């Protein structure tokens, strides 16, 4: 059995410090409130972290619906080997976004309210519902891998038979909430520099998510190759790079 190397290196030290500060920040955040660690207020309820966490984080996880759509809807089976890692990355990405929202929300214990307290005129209501539903879809798509691993043949066949349905739902939900994040800025034009304001923001947000999602799949494939010695199909990855550049 290989021994665990616990030697403290430079980067391990850096990550250890980040973890310690993160734990301290978490304790302060949940004991003294969001304002104590962010300097946010009712006048400025959103900070830079929202842009990084929600807007960027959700877009970075867009590789899941993009790759599954390419393979199952457009029937480009050439890229099928990328489906599972892309779905796993997207699933983990959305779980981390939901976890981060527990820190971002002033009253995280009310995160379930949109389920029963509907506000169809709110963009965030639509985003919240689509994120919840798409996370459930990703769980269903990834369950195929789990059932196959543990040889649960019957469940595997059931989920495999509805994978197209799940993919279509995933594309619909992702398209809705990726574009709706852009719609947030349509209702607050004074928050944007005039150069960046356009009615096409929802479309641009969606298009950017597709490009970024494909790029993350490429990066993830390379890192998997470096870490686990997984084979690297340069031709397929090069196709994704070209498509990302085009977008």
Automatic annotation (TrEMBL):
The record lists the membrane-crossing segments as 9-28, 48-74, 86-103, 123-146, 158-176, 196-219
Membrane topology per record: Multi-pass membrane protein
| GO annotations of cellular component type | plasma membrane
* Biological process terms in GO annotation: anaerobic respiration
Q: Output the InterPro entries linked to this UniProt entry.
A: FDH_cytochrome_b556_subunit, NrfD-like
Q: Which UniProt keywords apply?
A: Cell membrane, Membrane, Transmembrane, Transmembrane helix
* Primary localization class, coarse: membrane
Please tell me whether the keyword Transmembrane helix is annotated for this protein. Answer: yes
From which domain of life does this come?
Bacteria
Q: Where in the cell is it found?
A: Cell membrane
Q: Name one Pfam family in it.
A: NrfD
Q: What family does this belong to?
A: Belongs to the NrfD family.
Recorded protein name is Ni/Fe-hydrogenase cytochrome b subunit
């Amino acid at each position: 059995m290989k021994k665990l190397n616990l030697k403290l290196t430079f980067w391990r030290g850096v990550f250890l410090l980040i973890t310690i500060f993160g734990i301290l920040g978490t304790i302060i955040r949940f004991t003294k409130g969001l304002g104590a660690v962010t300097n946010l207020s009712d006048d400025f309820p959103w900070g830079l972290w929202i842009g990084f966490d929600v807007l960027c984080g959700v877009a970075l996880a867009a590789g899941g619906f993009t790759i599954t759509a390419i393979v199952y809807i457009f029937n480009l089976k050439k890229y099928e080997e990328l489906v599972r890692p892309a779905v796993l990355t997207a699933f983990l990405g959305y779980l981390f976004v939901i976890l981060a929202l527990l820190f971002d929300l002033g009253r995280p214990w009310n995160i379930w309210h949109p389920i029963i307290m509907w506000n169809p005129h709110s963009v965030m209501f639509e985003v919240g519902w689509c994120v919840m539903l798409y996370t459930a879809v990703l769980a269903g798509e990834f369950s195929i891998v789990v059932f196959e691993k543990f040889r649960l043949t019957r469940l595997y066949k059931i989920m495999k038979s509805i994978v197209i349905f799940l993919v279509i739902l995933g594309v619909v939900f992702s398209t809705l909430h990726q574009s709706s994040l852009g719609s947030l800025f349509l209702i607050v034009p004074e928050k944007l520099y005039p150069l960046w304001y356009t009615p096409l923001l929802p479309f641009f947000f969606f298009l950017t998510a597709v490009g970024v999602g494909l790029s993350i799949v490429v990066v993830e494939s390379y890192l998997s190759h470096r870490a686990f010695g997984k084979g690297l199909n340069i031709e397929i990855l090069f196709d994704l790079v070209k498509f990302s550049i085009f977008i």
